[in-house]
Amino acid sequence: MRIGLFLAYWPWFTPEEQSELAILADRLGLDSVWISEAWGQDAVSVLGSLSAQTERVRIGSGLMQIPARQPTATAMAAVTLDVLSKGRFNLGLGLSGPQVSEGWYGVAFDKPVTRTREYVEIVRKAMAGDKLEFNGDFWTIPLPEDQGMGLGRPLRMLARPVQERIPIYLGAIGPRAVEQVGEIADGWLPFMYSPENPDILGEPLLRGAEKAGRTIDDIDIAAVIPVAVADTVEAAREATKPWIVFYLGAMGAKAKNFYVDLADLYGHGESARACQEAFLAGDRLGAAAKLSDELIDICTISTTPDLLDGRIAAYEPIGVNEIVAIPCGDAETKDRTVRALAAARA
């Protein structure tokens, strides 16, 4: 199994930590480093910097937000990063949620499955060097004469990637969105993909793959998992708690949070909703206290060094090809976790 690092965005990791941990991952033989974005640090700038600081490890966007950029701008960024990294780039895309799409970008969160499908199709055409023409519900390229000056014509991207095909990963956990991953994506970046309850997300993935005449083996599953290695399981859980609190509390509204809904399907809705309510009331410490050990263990790898191999191995039977670990805790715990993961990888 491959193991990579998810180094997110500021303030979870400082710019210095992102660089130091990416260089460490490169040196220790880990497989990938992924950078994300929310409503602060962008992914493209940091990935460009890391491409110059690393030599071997793959770099990926986990995720670049679809409402942030026109699809052709994303295609240009992806090709540029692939060239700068000498063919080491993975393109991860996601819609985020309605709060970010509408509250930060001013883009309506409507028809998310159709929007994602069109976006991926345009990005692929552009990265492949095709002369770009597209007519969909959300994008029409070139712009029709009656909507502009009438001077637009199909263009072909001037730059070419190093890789013959830059892989596109999608982040999704809603059933229809996961089904679409199975239909159109090269890879999947799920959060809260549980070895104890794999069918809840696995069944729609398989359904989508079969609809497109594919199998699960055609989709690279890179599960994003908060990880902490500490002297005790309790200490490790304390290190990973803030990530679960953030996803349950901040990544969605009270009535529409995909992660709370997923926790409910896993049988831990009471803990997830109590955490969400405390977070939304401004009580982050209280929100963390509402998390049950069982919910933490479903969402994370919170463990001691001697148990790490077994926790990693649990993801193999559910089809995970790569664990994309979020190193959690203070700087010392993050460093210890990355080194432990590298030892497990070796």
Whole-number total of structural domains: 1
DSSP summary, beta strand count: 12
- Number of alpha- plus pi-helical segments: 14
Q: What is the succession of H and E elements?
A: EHEHEEHEHHEEEHEHEHHHHHEHEH
Q: Name the structural class.
A: alpha/beta
Please give the CATH architecture.
Alpha-Beta Barrel
Please give the largest β-sheet: 8 strands, parallel, barrel
According to CATH, what is the topology? TIM Barrel
Q: Write down the CATH class.
A: Alpha Beta
How far apart, in Å, are the first and last alpha carbons? Answer: 10 Å
Cα shape = globular
DSSP strand content:
5-15%
Share of residues in helices: 40-55%
Radius of gyration: 20 Å
Question: Would you tell me the overall average pLDDT?
Answer: 96
Keywords: Oxidoreductase
GO molecular function, one term: oxidoreductase activity, acting on paired donors, with incorporation or reduction of molecular oxygen
